[in-house]
Amino acid sequence: NRWPGYLFIDRSKGTLIGNGGYAGEPNEAGEVEVGYEVAPSYRNLGYASEAVRALVDHALQVAEVTAVIAHTLAEENASVRVLRKVGFQWDGEIVSEDAGAIWRWRITRDEAHAR
Description:
By secondary structure, this protein is of the alpha+beta class. The protein is built from 3 helices and 6 strands; from the N terminus they run βββαβαββα. The chain is globular, with a radius of gyration of 14 Å. The termini are far apart.
Protein backbone atom coordinates (compact mmCIF):
# COMPACT_ATOMS: atom_id res chain seq x y z
CA ASN A 1 0.00 0.00 0.00
CA ARG A 2 1.53 3.30 -1.11
CA TRP A 3 -0.66 5.35 1.27
CA PRO A 4 -0.50 3.55 4.63
CA GLY A 5 -1.29 4.47 8.18
CA TYR A 6 1.49 4.99 10.71
CA LEU A 7 1.94 4.66 14.45
CA PHE A 8 3.74 7.56 16.13
CA ILE A 9 6.28 6.37 18.67
CA ASP A 10 8.34 8.37 21.15
CA ARG A 11 11.58 6.45 20.60
CA SER A 12 13.21 7.77 23.77
CA LYS A 13 10.46 6.13 25.84
CA GLY A 14 9.35 3.37 23.46
CA THR A 15 5.81 4.68 23.84
CA LEU A 16 2.97 4.82 21.34
CA ILE A 17 1.82 8.45 21.25
CA GLY A 18 -0.54 8.59 18.28
CA ASN A 19 -1.32 7.55 14.73
CA GLY A 20 -2.01 9.02 11.34
CA GLY A 21 -1.75 8.53 7.64
CA TYR A 22 -3.50 9.07 4.37
CA ALA A 23 -7.17 8.81 3.45
CA GLY A 24 -6.32 6.96 0.22
CA GLU A 25 -4.89 7.60 -3.21
CA PRO A 26 -4.49 11.15 -4.54
CA ASN A 27 -7.63 12.60 -6.14
CA GLU A 28 -7.81 13.70 -9.80
CA ALA A 29 -6.24 17.07 -8.85
CA GLY A 30 -3.23 15.29 -7.31
CA GLU A 31 -4.27 16.03 -3.71
CA VAL A 32 -3.81 13.46 -0.97
CA GLU A 33 -5.53 13.83 2.42
CA VAL A 34 -3.82 13.37 5.78
CA GLY A 35 -5.31 12.67 9.17
CA TYR A 36 -3.74 12.22 12.57
CA GLU A 37 -4.28 12.05 16.30
CA VAL A 38 -2.03 12.26 19.33
CA ALA A 39 -2.82 10.83 22.76
CA PRO A 40 -3.99 13.51 25.24
CA SER A 41 -0.94 13.20 27.50
CA TYR A 42 1.36 13.94 24.52
CA ARG A 43 -0.47 16.95 23.12
CA ASN A 44 1.08 20.45 23.02
CA LEU A 45 4.59 18.98 22.92
CA GLY A 46 5.21 19.30 19.16
CA TYR A 47 4.56 15.66 18.28
CA ALA A 48 1.55 16.37 16.03
CA SER A 49 3.41 19.06 14.08
CA GLU A 50 6.40 16.77 13.61
CA ALA A 51 4.18 13.91 12.46
CA VAL A 52 2.12 16.03 10.04
CA ARG A 53 5.28 17.61 8.62
CA ALA A 54 6.65 14.09 7.97
CA LEU A 55 3.38 12.97 6.34
CA VAL A 56 3.41 16.04 4.07
CA ASP A 57 7.06 15.57 3.13
CA HIS A 58 6.51 11.88 2.39
CA ALA A 59 3.45 12.56 0.22
CA LEU A 60 5.15 15.31 -1.76
CA GLN A 61 7.97 12.93 -2.74
CA VAL A 62 5.44 11.24 -5.04
CA ALA A 63 5.50 12.98 -8.44
CA GLU A 64 1.72 12.83 -9.00
CA VAL A 65 0.97 14.60 -5.69
CA THR A 66 0.52 18.36 -6.15
CA ALA A 67 -0.80 19.18 -2.67
CA VAL A 68 -1.73 17.71 0.69
CA ILE A 69 -5.11 18.48 2.22
CA ALA A 70 -6.67 18.04 5.65
CA HIS A 71 -10.06 18.72 7.21
CA THR A 72 -10.91 20.06 10.67
CA LEU A 73 -14.01 21.12 12.53
CA ALA A 74 -14.91 24.70 11.59
CA GLU A 75 -13.43 26.24 14.72
CA GLU A 76 -10.12 27.41 16.10
CA ASN A 77 -8.68 24.35 17.81
CA ALA A 78 -5.46 22.38 18.30
CA SER A 79 -5.68 20.72 14.89
CA VAL A 80 -5.98 24.10 13.18
CA ARG A 81 -2.91 25.32 15.07
CA VAL A 82 -0.93 22.25 13.99
CA LEU A 83 -1.88 22.66 10.33
CA ARG A 84 -1.01 26.36 10.33
CA LYS A 85 2.31 25.65 12.05
CA VAL A 86 3.17 23.13 9.32
CA GLY A 87 2.24 25.65 6.59
CA PHE A 88 -1.27 24.65 5.54
CA GLN A 89 -3.53 27.42 4.25
CA TRP A 90 -7.30 27.60 4.84
CA ASP A 91 -8.99 26.47 1.61
CA GLY A 92 -12.70 26.92 2.32
CA GLU A 93 -15.59 25.52 4.27
CA ILE A 94 -17.76 22.56 3.35
CA VAL A 95 -20.78 21.06 5.07
CA SER A 96 -20.75 17.40 6.01
CA GLU A 97 -23.94 15.50 6.85
CA ASP A 98 -22.12 13.77 9.69
CA ALA A 99 -20.04 16.58 11.20
CA GLY A 100 -21.65 19.83 10.04
CA ALA A 101 -19.31 22.65 8.99
CA ILE A 102 -15.79 21.49 8.11
CA TRP A 103 -12.76 23.56 7.18
CA ARG A 104 -10.55 22.39 4.32
CA TRP A 105 -6.80 23.02 4.57
CA ARG A 106 -4.19 22.69 1.81
CA ILE A 107 -0.43 22.90 1.34
CA THR A 108 1.21 22.75 -2.09
CA ARG A 109 4.64 21.46 -2.97
CA ASP A 110 5.95 25.04 -3.35
CA GLU A 111 4.50 26.11 0.02
CA ALA A 112 6.00 23.08 1.75
CA HIS A 113 9.43 23.76 0.27
CA ALA A 114 9.25 27.44 1.27
CA ARG A 115 8.70 26.75 4.99
